[in-house]
Each structure stands twice: as structure tokens, then as C-alpha cells.
Amino acid sequence: MQAKSVIILLMSNLESYKVVISDGTGEIVEKKSRFIANVFAVESQQQAEEKIAEISKKYWDARHNCYAYVIGKNSENTRCSDNGEPSGTAGKPILEVITGAGLTNTLVIVTRYFGGVLLGTGGLVRAYTQAAQAGIANCEVGEMVYAQKLTIEVGYNMVNNVQYYLGQNDISIAESRYEANVQFDICVKECDLDKIKSGLTQKCEGQLQIIEGDKDYYRL
Fold this sequence. Notes:
Layout: E1 6-8, E2 16-22, E3 24-30, E4 33-41, H1 45-58, E5 64-71, E6 77-81, H2 91-100, E7 106-113, H3 120-137, E8 140-154, H4 159-168, E9 175-178, E10 182-189, H5 193-203, E11 208-219
Antiparallel strand pairs: 1-6, 2-8, 3-4, 4-7, 5-6, 5-7, 8-10, 8-11, 9-10
């Protein structure tokens, strides 16, 4: 009988959270059983379910396609499934790997091809844990930080000043536009906002315009 999915709601206020930037895969072999982990960035339950259906179709001949996902800026939507493995031996260990890595908006599906040897509950937990870890290890992970978006508009004579100041303060330019004037889009942590605005104004001798945009989670 297929194990029922488990839904857990987690709420917290975070200044930042980690996400998968690029998908990845990993594989381990335990007593002739293959455990193939596929890791995806997802932003909704529907997107996660579509990926689960896609992997289940791809590995249609596998014994199990177990999964877990965490969705939401505050990890508020969490689900896992053992997909026929003994209760608590697959979905929960995968979920614990995701949460242990501090990730959200992340789906991990571990496909098992049975090798003919029973692993026991402890062996299954270890195998699904190691497979999920292998998959995440092969992904690019980034941090989303709550920040203020700023657009800096300057004349061409101040471009080098802006670029130098941002480089000195390790601030990436998200986008540049070269028109009548030059505009640079950046994102700044709220705690650094006054300092950066003041520093840019001083560096450009007041010859700039700073336009405040949305506050949201951005990759810095």
C-alpha cells in the first residue's frame, strides 16, 4: 500500500533563505539497489506535482519514486511521501536532508531500482538520506536576501565612480542601461541602505538620482 503523504506547516520570519539555482542529480548503490536523486527548484505545489509525475513517467519501471519538497519563503508548505516504502524510511529522511540544508522551494525525488536484497528500515533511511545528499551536492545553491532594490541614475562622467564604489562594497549590478544617462539596478540589505545611499552620494559628489524600488527577496 502506498504511504500517505505528510503535510507539515512551518512558519518563521527570515531575513534570508536558500534555494536551488540549478537542478542536479546524484546516485548511490546500496546492496545492488540503485537510488537516483533528482533535485529541482520549484515555486508551487502544482509545479512540484508536475515534476513528480514527470519523473514517475521517466522511471516507470522503478520500484519506488519517493519524494519530499519544501515551498515558500518561510518554508510554509512541506510534503513528503514514502511511495510504498515502509512508513518513515524514505520521504521523511529526504525531507530532513532538504531542511537540514536550509533549503526551500526545493523538490527532491529519489527513485529506487530494487536490487533483490532487503535493506531493513535503518538501511533504507541511510540510503535515501545519502542519495538526497548526493543530489543536492550536485546542485548550485544560492541565498535569497530581503533587500531594497535601488536604481542609480548618473551622467556618463560618474559611471566609473559608481562602479568603483559598488565594487569596493561587494555589491553586484543586476542590470545596466546606457541611454541619455546611465542607470544601474542594485539590491541592498535594509540594514546597509542608509550607508550605501550616503556613500554613493558622496562618491558622485551629489550628481546622481537614487530611485527606491520594491523590497523583496533578491539574490545579492
